[in-house]
Amino acid sequence: MAQGYRAHLGPRPTAQDEPVSTESLTLRGGAGRPLVLVHGLMGRGTTWSRQVPWLTRFGAVYTYDAPWHRGREVEDPEPVSTERFVADLADAVAGLGRPAVLIGHSMGGLHSWCLAAQRFELVSALVVEDMAPDFVGRTTGPWEPWVHALPVEYSTAEQVYDEYGPIAGRYFLEAFDRTATGWRLHGSPARWMEIAAQWGTRDYWQQWQAVRAPVLLIEAGDSVAPPGQMRRMAELGVDARYVHVEGAGHLVHDDAPERYREAVETFLAALPEDP
Fold first, then answer.
1. CATH number, domain containing residue 20
2. Domain assignment present for 128
3. Average pLDDT score over residue span 20-43
4. Rounded distance, CA 50 to CA 29, Å?
5. Taking the CA of residue 259 as centre, how many other CA atoms within 13 Å lie in the half-sphere pointing to its CB?
6. In the prediction, which pLDDT does 1 show?
């Protein structure tokens, strides 16, 4: 997924509240139904800064930091697995005390629909951005040398933009740990490779077909998903809508922000009132 990048809680929130954090969730503002933003591989909750303001109109917005993405020195004692990610996300969402809308990008979309399949009572609706169920047989080999060669720390923002480009560069500046001397990777490249490698060994069609919550599927024109899979997801989904964003890269929400916002706002506005 990094290759695509390259081209419990406090009181019920209000819009004026300061961010409130736990280990994995940060309250960003809004009130009412919880909306949890779930980042992709090598991402972090802080990368949703441009989406949080307009999303607060639809509920209480939280950002989520997944295991192995919480800081360079923060390790997780469990083995890397999809099940570990889903269990951690489940614990975070369960702490909200009511079903949440999960808005997931890439890896975050996968873990969100796996949670919806396993713990339907925790998830009221889903947005899945540019992720498919089946990468079996694909390997991380072509881009492992690049990932392992990443410096632990960048001394200037220009270095980050040179490495990742204007869209992903801004994204990673928001994800990395800010230090006194620059921007430091917020996780281990070896762990990130291990996470991605697992997707080449199994598929997640069974989990997808078990989802019963309403879903919005957003596919990038320049998608990392194997051709046709997200359209097939829409065909097999119980209550799924599909949007293809022509010309957008993997980070649709930042590369085509107006189209992404239009699709998500239309979807959220049509959801039934939270009981």
1. 3.40.50.1820
2. yes
3. 90
4. 13
5. 17
6. 40
Helices within the chain (DSSP H only): 2-6, 52-55, 82-94, 107-118, 144-148, 157-164, 166-175, 189-198, 205-209, 229-236, 252-255, 257-269
Evaluate whether residue 45 is within a structural domain: yes
Q: What is the structure's pLDDT at 10?
A: 31
Q: DSSP assignment, residue 152?
A: S
- Which run of H or E residues covers position 219? strand 215-220
Q: Answer yes or no: is 20 within a domain.
A: yes
Q: Which of 79, 128, 135 is nearest to 104 (CA)?
A: 128
Are 39 and 26 within 8 A, CB to CB? no
Mean pLDDT across the stretch 150-168?
Answer: 96
Which domain range does residue 120 map to? 2-135+203-269
pTM for this model (two decimals): 0.91
pLDDT of residue 143: 84
pLDDT score for 140: 85
Distances from the Cα of 196 to the Cα of 76, 108, 231, angstroms: 16, 12, 22
Q: How many domains does the chain have?
A: 1
Could you give the 3-state DSSP secondary structure of residue 201? coil
In the predicted model, is pLDDT for residue 271 greater than 90? yes
In a domain, residue 105? The reply is yes
- Identify whether the C-beta of residue 173 lies closer than 8 Å to the C-beta of residue 163: no
Angle between helix axes 107-118 and 82-94 (nearest 10 degrees) is: 70
Local confidence band at 275 (pLDDT 50, 70, 90 cut-offs): low
Position of tokens 């939280």? Answer: 62
